[in-house]
Design a protein that fits this description.
This protein is an all-alpha fold. The protein has 9 helices and no strands. The longest helix has 27 residues.
């Protein structure tokens, strides 16, 4: 877990509050689980910061809970469009992070409010992902 020490989590919170992501912090700000990538483009940095299991995710949340809970609180207020605009090309990594943390919630042992907010975020993003993939597959224009 040393790889997550000495990171500027306040910078992430400022960007979330301002709804403008300019930094490159996705790997350690919202780490994803190894082997949960699907079609996500994986870099060596992604590999380095990926979480191995739920125990490591729990440790991540415990050590960064003040940042993590506040970040998820703010992000739960974003609409689906705002989330997609904010994360841009990193949206798939964020969806993977949220999905994994929702699945392993009991093992991670986060507070109920944060879990509820993760579910809100997940429900805003996943249907859009499915709709977008269907739209793309069928070559449909949605206005």
């Amino acid at each position: 877990m040393k790889r997550f020490l000495n990171k500027d989590y306040q910078f992430i919170l400022e960007e979330i509050r301002n709804k403008e992501k300019t930094g490159h912090w996705m790997w350690w700000g919202f780490p994803i689980f190894k082997y949960s990538w699907g079609e996500i483009k994986v870099s060596t940095t992604t590999l380095y910061y990926s979480l191995v299991n739920a125990h490591e995710a729990r440790e991540y949340v415990e050590k960064n809970h003040l940042y993590y809970y506040e970040a998820i609180d703010y992000l739960s207020l974003y609409t689906s469009i705002e989330l997609r605009k904010f994360f841009g090309p990193d949206i798939d990594k964020f969806i993977s992070h949220v999905h994994s943390f929702v699945i392993y919630q009991k093992d991670i042992n986060m507070d109920k409010k944060t879990f509820r907010n993760l579910l809100i975020i997940f429900c805003r993003l996943v249907p859009c992902t499915l709709i977008e993939s269907i739209r793309h597959e069928k070559n449909l224009a949605i206005y």
